[in-house]
UniProtKB/TrEMBL annotation, chains A, B:
Keyword Transport: no
CDD domains assigned to the protein according to its UniProt record, in alphabetical order: AAK_AKii-LysC-BS, ACT_AKii-LysC-BS-like_1, ACT_AKii-LysC-BS-like_2
GO molecular function, one term: aspartate kinase activity
Task performed by this protein: Catalyzes the phosphorylation of the beta-carboxyl group of aspartic acid with ATP to yield 4-phospho-L-aspartate, which is involved in the branched biosynthetic pathway leading to the biosynthesis of amino acids lysine, threonine, isoleucine and methionine.
Taxonomic lineage from the root: Bacteria, Bacillati, Actinomycetota, Actinomycetes, Micrococcales
Matching InterPro entries: AceGlu_kinase-like_sf, ACT-like_dom_sf, ACT_Aspartokinase, ACT_dom, AKii-LysC-BS, Asp/Glu/Uridylate_kinase, Asp_kin_monofn, Asp_kinase
Organism: Microbacterium rhizosphaerae
Name of the protein in question: Aspartokinase
Length: 427, 427
C-alpha cells in the first residue's frame, strides 16, 4: 500500500461532470489499496471571476482581503469533490490550507511555505478517509491570516504535502499526457518522455514549457519528491520527474546512453527592449539593470553590441516577460538623462527557442547542430544565451514554430506519429 | 461613541454596485464616530447556486462538506466588502466564523451557538479597524470543523456578536423600511411601526412575517440586545425591537395606551392534512403526532372534530409547512393499519392569518373583532388557534389577502397612505 498525493487543476474540476470524473479516479486509486491525499484548484475560471469582482469594488484590492477572497475558490471545489467521493461510498474529508497545516510567511498573494504540519491529514488517513486539501492557500502563524501561494500554487501545495507526508509519488494531473519533447501544438511530431531529470524539467519550465510550475519542481527536487505528470483523461503513464543522479543511474542500468537533448521549449511571451546609444563607459550596464530590477521587471537574456569606436556609444538589448515591458520602459525613460542613452526600442514580436539536455555537459557540438538547423531553414538568430544544460536563441516570433520543428528533427527527437492533443483549456 | 453591529443580507450585497453602496453606508457610520462590526450574508443567490452544484455532484451531500461549501459564500462577500471599504480610505478586516470566535455545537447545517469569543474582533476594533464577519457560519471546537447556522443564520450571527461585544444596537438591514403592521404587498395601507416588543415580534415572525428571523429575535431577547430593523435603501429610522417590559414603560411614559394589536401576519406557506375516520379512543392523537414528529415535520395548528357517535370515529386536521407535508403523509400512510384511520386528505390551498398584540392579555373582545370582520367579508374560518398574545385562523388561500385587509382595517391599523415598497428580492 502506497501513499499517493494527487493534484487536479481547475480545468479538471471545471463543472459537476468533471468533478464526478475526478472523484471516480480518486476512488479507483483508493480501491487499488492506496492512501490518497488530493490537492485541488478552484473550478475552471473561478479565480479569474473573483479577481474581476475584486477589481469592480476596489481599484487596488487590499492584499489580505484578496487572499481571503481567492481562497474561497478552492473551498468550493474541494467540498464538492469530497461530497462526490462520499456519495460513491468512500469516506472523504476536505481541509482548508490552514486546517491542513500549510504554514506560510505573511506575503499575501505570493506566500512561501515555511512549514507543513499535516496533523489532521494524518488523523484522517489513519481513520481510512480520503483527504482533500485546498490547493494554492496557506496560513500565517503570526498574523493568523489566510495567504495564497501565487501562480502554480496548487502544484506546490501537492508537492509540499507529498514531502511532509513522505508520499511515494506526487501525481500532477492536467489535460496533457505528460512532458513532451516539445509543445505538441507547435511540433506535431513531439514525443512524450517517460522520464526527465528535475534539472532538465526546471530549464524547460523556465523557458516556456507550461505543464509543471518551476516552483513545484524546485520544491520536489529539494525534498526528494517523485513527480508523475499525467493526464486526467487517460489512465496511461505520464512522465516521471526524477532527480538527476537517479536519472543517470537509470540510464546506466538500462545500458542506454542518456539522450543529449531532452526537449525543445518555445516561448512567445517575451519582449525585447533595446537601449540605443548608451555611453560605453564602465558601470553603465550595472546602472541600467539596477533601474530595471527596481521597476519589478525580471530580465532574461542580455546582449551588448560591440562599441562603435567612432561614437563611443553602444546598444544594449534585453528580453523580459511581455507583461513587464511597460514598467521597465517607464523606469528607463525616467532616467534617460542620468544614463545618457539616446533612445528606447520595444519589440514584442520575438520568439524564444530553448534546447535543454543534461547531455550537453559531456557532449560537444550540441550548439552547432542548433545553429546549422536554423541556418538551413533560413531563420535568423537575434540573441543567444546558454546555461550548463541549455541553449536559448531569440528569433522572429512568426518563425518560432518552424524553427522548433527543424530543431526537433535535427536532434533526432521526432516520434513516429503525430502527438494526440486532448481537448481542454490548457490550464 | 457607540459600538454598532450591522447586518446586511444577500440582496444588499448582490453585486459590485450594491457592495459599494453598503461600504459607503458602513463608512458613514464610522465617520459619525462609531465603532462598527458588520455581519454579512453571501451575495444574492450564491447559497442557492452552491446548493444546486452540490445536488449535481451528490444526491445527499455529506453535511460536513456541505457546510464547508456553503461557508465559502460569505467569505467572498465579506472580502469584497472589506476591500471596498479599504479603497475608501478606511481600515477594514474580514473574519471567518472561526476567526471571529463563533463557537457552535457540531450539528452541521443547523448549528447552535454555544459561545462567542471575539478576541480578534476586539483587537481589530482597538486598532481602529472596521470589522467584517462572515454571517451564517461557525466552528466546532471538538471536531475543529466549520459549521453553518441554518436559515436566518446571518441575523443570528449579528445578534450574537452584538451580545458578546456589548454593542449599543444591532441594526438588521433589508430592503424594507422596518416592521409593518402587515405585509405591504398584501395590505397596501400597512404602517411601519416605530417600535415593537420582542414577544410580539416573535409571534409575528413565527406566523409568517419575514423581516426578522425568530431565532435572532429570541437570542436578542435572551441577551438584552436592542434590534433596529431598517432599510439599506433609506437613512430614515426603521423599527426598534425592544424588550416587553421596556415597551410597557415607554408606553406609560408617553401617556399612551399600548395599542391592542401590533400587526397582522399572513402565511401562504402552510398545508393542511386531514386524517379521516380515526377511531375515537384515548391515545390515538398522541400516537398520530408521535409518528408525524418522527417524520421530521413540525405541526402548527391542530383541530379535532366532534366524534360522530354512530361511527365511533372522528377526523383530525393539522397544519404544517408545505415542504414538510409529503414526509408526514408518507409516515402516516405507512402506519394506517396500526392507527386504523380510513383515509388521508392533503390540502395546500390554505392561508393562515394571525393577529398579534401584547394588549390581548388585558383587553377582551379582541377575537370578536376578528371573527366579525371576516364574517362581514364573507371569509370562512376553517381552523382557529390562539396564544396569550395571538389569534390565528386558517382560511382559503385565495381569500387570505382580502381577509388581511379587512382585519387590518377593523383593528384601526390602516395608515393614511399606501406603504412604499422598495424594489428588491424581498428579504
Amino acid at each position: 500500500m502506497a501513499l499517493i498525493v494527487q493534484k487536479y487543476g481547475g480545468s479538471s474540476v471545471a463543472d459537476a461532470e468533471s468533478i464526478k470524473r475526478v472523484a471516480k479516479r480518486i476512488v479507483d486509486t483508493r480501491r487499488a489499496g492506496h492512501d490518497v491525499v488530493v490537492a485541488v484548484s478552484a473550478m475552471g475560471d473561478t479565480t479569474d471571476e473573483l479577481l474581476d469582482l475584486a477589481a469592480e469594488v476596489a481599484p487596488i484590492p487590499a492584499p489580505r482581503e484578496l487572499d481571503m477572497l481567492l481562497s474561497s475558490g478552492e473551498r468550493i471545489s474541494m467540498a464538492l469533490l469530497a461530497m462526490a467521493i462520499h456519495s460513491m461510498g468512500f469516506e472523504a474529508r476536505s481541509f482548508t490550507g490552514s486546517q491542513a497545516g500549510m504554514i506560510t510567511d505573511a506575503t499575501h498573494g505570493a506566500a512561501r511555505i515555511v512549514d507543513v504540519t499535516p496533523v489532521r491529514l494524518r488523523e484522517a488517513l489513519d481513520e481510512g478517509a480520503i483527504v482533500i486539501v485546498a490547493g494554492f492557500q496557506g496560513f500565517n502563524r503570526d498574523t493568523r491570516d489566510i495567504t495564497t501561494l501565487g501562480r502554480g500554487g496548487s502544484d506546490t501545495t501537492a508537492v509540499a504535502l507529498a514531502a511532509a507526508l513522505d508520499a511515494d509519488v506526487c501525481e500532477i494531473y492536467s489535460d496533457v499526457d505528460g512532458i513532451f519533447t516539445a509543445d505538441p501544438r507547435v511540433v506535431p511530431k513531439a514525443r512524450k518522455l517517460d522520464r526527465i531529470s528535475s534539472e532538465e524539467m526546471l530549464e524547460l519550465a523556465a523557458n516556456g514549457a507550461k505543464v509543471l510550475y518551476i516552483r513545484a519542481v524546485e520544491y520536489a527536487r529539494r525534498h526528494g519528491v517523485l513527480i508523475h505528470a499525467r493526464s486526467t483523461f487517460s489512465s496511461s503513464d505520464g512522465t516521471l520527474v526524477i532527480d538527476s543522479r537517479r536519472a543517470e543511474l537509470l540510464a546506466q542500468g538500462e545500458h542506454m546512453e542518456e539522450p543529449i537533448v531532452a526537449g525543445v521549449a518555445t516561448d512567445l511571451g517575451q519582449a525585447k527592449v533595446t537601449i540605443i546609444g548608451v555611453p560605453d563607459v564602465p558601470g553603465k550596464a550595472a546602472e541600467i539593470f539596477k533601474i530595471v530590477a527596481k521597476s519589478g521587471a525580471n530580465v532574461d537574456m542580455i546582449v551588448q553590441n560591440v562599441s562603435a569606436a567612432a561614437t563611443g556609444r553602444t546598444d544594449i538589448s534585453f528580453t523580459l516577460p511581455k507583461s513587464e515591458a511597460s514598467m521597465a520602459l517607464k523606469a528607463l525613460a525616467g532616467e534617460q538623462a542620468g544614463i545618457g542613452f539616446e533612445s528606447l526600442v520595444h519589440d514584442d514580436q520575438i520568439g524564444k527557442l530553448s534546447v535543454v539536455g543534461a547531455g550537453m555537459r559531456t557532449h560537444s557540438g550540441v550548439s552547432a547542430t542548433l545553429f546549422e538547423a536554423l541556418s538551413v531553414a533560413g531563420v535568423n538568430i537575434e540573441m543567444i544565451s546558454t546555461s550548463e544544460i541549455r541553449i536559448s536563441v531569440v528569433v522572429r516570433g512568426d518563425e518560432l514554430a518552424e524553427a522548433a520543428r527543424v530543431v526537433h528533427t535535427a536532434y533526432g527527437l521526432d516520434g513516429d506519429a503525430d502527438a494526440v492533443i486532448h481537448a481542454g483549456t490548457g490550464r
